[in-house]
Specification:
With 242 residues, the chain is α+β, with helices and mostly antiparallel strands. It has helices spanning 2-14, 89-94, 218-237, and strands spanning 22-28, 51-54, 58-66, 79-84, 98-105, 109-121, 133-140, 146-147, 152-153, 163-164, 168-169, 183-190, 194-198, 206-214.
Length: 242
């Protein structure tokens, strides 16, 4: 058992090429106008308004979209949903008050996710600072949705051009590292005054960062496995000096 675990650990370190974290998907709604039809559903292309950045190593499976309990809005230079008017997490989940998107690595790639960054434009509808809550979840492949930590309090003043929220760190979530399947993110919100909008600061107002690397070729994998097993065999056969 220890031998198998050690081989797996060593392979995890040596088979995957190093890759620097970059923005895999970024959405900047600057320039998106209500006169052009408001906020698009399944926002996955700059042709729909604003600017969408997509790394060449990944693909957008489902563009930025809204749950069935919400409706589109018409705020210029922002993207989000109206109708997010529940007051508890359970009610928000039951009412499908969420925003979501999904992505997957291009064929032959491994995808590792490190961070979510987002700016939120708080509506002018009165709300008590610190009472608005939101919760991110993820799902890998056909699995179940998993909460990312605990519900978070929205920070900042309302009726501004946007407030940067604390970065959501994903690097410690093992299920989101070296992924070959589709990953979907959902964000539920409640006590929001009815609207939740990404915007309206310069640059991306929602960005997912990470890295992409090529899946090692089978011949290289076999060579590495044999090399590790040979090293381990010699290690366990060598008498300990005494």
């Amino acid at each position: 058992m220890k031998f198998t675990a050690l081989v797996a650990a060593i392979l995890g370190m040596v088979t995957l090429p190093h890759a620097h974290a970059v923005v895999l998907i970024g959405w900047d709604p600057q320039g998106m106008s209500a006169a052009n039809g408001g906020w698009p559903d399944g926002w996955s292309s700059s042709s729909q308004g604003g600017t969408v950045t997509v790394d060449s190593g990944i693909q957008i499976v489902e563009g930025l979209n809204r749950g069935a309990g919400t409706t589109a809005g018409t705020l210029n230079n922002g993207w989000g949903a109206t109708g997010i008017n529940q007051t508890t997490q359970a009610a928000a989940i039951s009412d499908n008050d969420y925003l979501f998107f999904s992505l997957a690595p291009q064929e032959g790639n491994l995808m590792s996710l490190s961070a979510l960054d987002y700016n939120v434009r708080l509506v002018s509808t009165p709300w008590n600072s610190g009472d608005t809550r939101y919760l991110w979840q993820y799902k890998v492949g056909d699995g179940s949705f998993v909460d990312i930590g605990e519900p978070l309090a929205l920070v900042g003043e309302y009726n501004t051009n946007g407030v940067a929220q604390p970065t959501l760190n994903l690097s410690g979530i093992a299920a989101l590292q070296n992924v070959t399947e589709e990953v979907e993110f959902r964000m539920y919100a409640w006590n929001s005054g009815g609207q939740f909008v990404f915007g309206r600061l310069p640059g991306n107002d929602l960005a997912l960062s990470g890295s992409v690397s090529a899946v090692p070729e089978p011949s290289r994998m076999l060579f590495l496995i044999l090399g590790v097993m040979s090293w381990m065999f010699r290690r366990y056969r060598t008498p300990i000096p005494g």
